[in-house]
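Worked Example 4.2. Consider the chain below.
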Amino acid sequence: MVVQVTFEPLKITPVGYVRKNDELHEVFIEILPEFKAAMDGLREGDWIKLVLWFHESDTPERRRILKVHPYGNPANPLTGVFATRSPYRPNPIALYTVRIHRIEDNRLYIDWIDAHDGTPVIDIKIFVERYDCPKEIPIEEREAHIREGRMIGEVNVIPRKGEHLDELEEVSPAEYDAVILEIGPKTTTLTAKELVELIEALKEAYEGLPVEIRDRLRTREGRSP
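Applying the procedure from the previous section yields the following structure tokens:
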């Protein structure tokens, strides 16, 4: 029996456009007014992932191109487009990793990119090393308790799930990786021993705060000075 699957058309809405000022050698993303609130939390210096729609390559003929010469050089062997960065694809989506140099109103001034002026921006995501530059991390993704992660300033503290800890009786605190720390885009892990040392260091830093600051913190937390 053959089952026929019908797909609904996908709807992609531009959130902004690439703008280029050749005289000033500037490139910026102009966010549309209705999406400006989505910029909240972005900071100058942040690395972001841009998802663009190469509208000038969006033709039926170019969508059917499945093999290209990488970098447009005929000397390179024909290669499937999924193994290249060619703009000719079944869906002409482009990805860039860029740094925000400054933010002015609804404009994100970024590094130079080869996208043409007027190219639609369909999404922006913050760059996260753990996802975008994967490397050997002792705590596997399935073991990370993502929902329990706490954002404190630019630091995201993600604990390891506590299941099956009875199987770790032979593991020392210096060997057991306890938390993932994401600091901006950077990722590292702390063992249980290092976590305790960090807690002790933070306690010392807290005790070193001016008495007036500590009193205000206690008052805010509902504790008597």
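The mean pLDDT is 87. The radius of gyration is 24 Å. Compare this with Example 4.1 before moving on.
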